[in-house]
Design brief:
Elements lengths: L6 H8 L7 H10 L6 H13 L4 H9 L6 H13 L6 H16 L7 H9 L7 H12 L5 H19 L5 H13 L6 H8 L1
Helix pairs in contact: 2-4, 3-5, 5-6, 5-7, 6-8, 7-9, 8-10, 9-10
Length: 196
Amino acid sequence: GLARGDAAALSAVAGLVDDPDPAVRQQVLLSMGEARGEAAALVLAEALLLSAESADLLDAGMTSLTPQMVEAVTLAVSQAVNEERVGGPAATRLVGKLLVQAASMGKADGLAEARAALLASVDAAAAAERLELATAIIKGGRADEAVDAAARVVVAAAWTILHDAAAEPQRRVAAVQLLDAAGESFASEELTDLLL
């Protein structure tokens, strides 16, 4: 089966990742915890992306992440979101969850390039979900030069959003959270004036 790396078993499971029955998709996600290898990680990544809107399915999939798979799954999902092959708040939140999980498993160092690319996609026009993802990236794992450089640009964008009185409240709150995660400081009076 999946635990032995059986390609036929993996192919059979992969054919069910988009099954219309949520119970079937949940079983696929749970079963992927037994799978091994790069191909299995790609199947799990696809299954997670297709289940990102469902908290129950997403929880099932997150339990299947192993230290051996978390990096490949996170890279595949991050790339799909960054290239906008999938989108929406749920997919963006999924990337954040995966990055946090990878960091907790000690696998964040291998994700520096993906983290830098995701940060580079955040600018002053970014939606609140992208700012929240940038916050998760800044909080998680050790940074390298590319991540640090991209983070500095994102911090500047967050300041721009915070000072934009016409920006949506969710974006401004997300900008404050990002600035806090980046260690930026501001007086509480300044923050009150900016948000009101």
